[in-house]
User: Fold this.
Amino acid sequence: MSQQEQRGEFPLCYGCGRDNPIGFRLHVHGDGERTWAEFTPRELHCGWPDIVHGGVLCVLLDEVVSYLPYFRLPGVRTMTGKMETRFRRPAREGQRLFISAWMVKARSRVLEVKSSITLLCGTTVAESECLIFVLGKEI
Assistant:
């Protein structure tokens, strides 16, 4: 398995794929305890004029959450089982967003993870609590 596959960076992934022409192309960083990325939404990411669509914010949160196991538990396959999101305030087109995730609790088959999106000034835009299901080891 290539290092790219080990980290979960698949070329056509909607969140991080470098070859997906309609994807977010996030570059997710991690240290085993946290994951993080930055994203600046454009007009194409808006629902109402100048307001980033809530589904876009959910994709950003889910992508950074899904990378946490890749950095913390290399070789383990996972999937998001539950995601509860709270939107605190609107994100606007052109605002630089900081997305981060961290582990709350790890059990053998379920990981509890929290994540947030903040602005440069530290204001929280959205946050989530997720259950990540451990499916097994990569083949």
Summary: The chain has a mean pLDDT of 90.
